[in-house]
Amino acid sequence: MLPFCREFAKQMGVTRSGNHLALVQFSGYCRTEFGLTGYFNPERLEEAISMVRYMNGGTRLGQALDYTLKRVMNASRKGPPTTVNKAVVVVTDGASEDDVASPAKALRNDNVQIVVVGVGSGIVQEQLELVADGPANVYTVEDFAQLNKALAGRLKAKICEK
């Protein structure tokens, strides 16, 4: 998973005046690994991603979406300006144990595009499509080994097409 995050960050490119990235990890609870204004230097961003330690536990995707909206995208109204494209990429390997419809809708109401990557056999396609507002923003892979450079490129293209 972390190699994929590093590849995605590399392809997106981060700069103070361009793309900003944040990383939120979730299981039974949520944790911000770094916020949207944390890193503008690609090497330091890669180091930060490498320092992430995986969380274990459940899959509370609805809670994670709500957390991301309130604590990352709109953190003290210091989130991204309304004039920039905003997107959330969700990577999940399980069915959510909580409601995803309301928090996903709240993000979309804030003009945030949601792209979902489902990994493995524990996902529920209908739930992913509900979060992503349809199948066009959903990608599925059989295992974490398939999270690769090509997929990172497709995600970047999807996010940047808006």
From TrEMBL:
Ranges that cross the membrane: none
Recorded superkingdom: Eukaryota
Domain VWFA: 1-155
SMART domains membership: VWA
Entry-linked InterPro entries: ECM_Assembly_Org, VWF_A, vWFA_dom_sf
Gene3D superfamilies in UniProt: von Willebrand factor, type A domain (3.40.50.410)
Name recorded for this polypeptide: VWFA domain-containing protein
